[in-house]
Amino acid sequence: MKAVLLNGSPRPQGNTAKMASAFTEAAEGAGHKVVRFDVCKMNIKGCLACEYCHGKGEGTCIQKDDMQKIYTELKDAELLVLAAPIYYHGISGQLKCAIDRFYSALYPKAPESLKYVAMFLASGDKDQYDGARFSFDGDFLGYLKLEDKGFFTAHGEVTDEVLDEIREMARNLR
To answer: What number is the average pLDDT over the span 76-82?
Structure first.
């Protein structure tokens, strides 16, 4: 299976990065391909809402930035993994910009190969995940009809238990 992982954390050694790395190592160890994008290091602009992609662009975005790399990998991915810290009750702005730009590539429907989604979230407080959960459930499970491969959260320091759950999910991908 091919997975595209979007890491929305600017902290290379933070909890979100640890969860992303645990997934990547376990998935690759089980023979899967993981393409990881650290979106905080990329040049990704916000959606312009210009509708070019749904008119003349025929599914392509008018903006030519680093999202092109993600679009290319999404075309044949089976699993999308979204990883982010929680800032003000939602995912990081850097990841939100990338997700907003899915408008050209995933709406009105995802590529045929894309079947699954998972989310990894880190926060200082265990009660801060409602906004991200709402988007995950509504946008990815509801609207795009992707199958849930897990919603993993860590508050404070990420625990070995959470990392082991992520590794188990990654090893058991089919």
So the answer is: 98
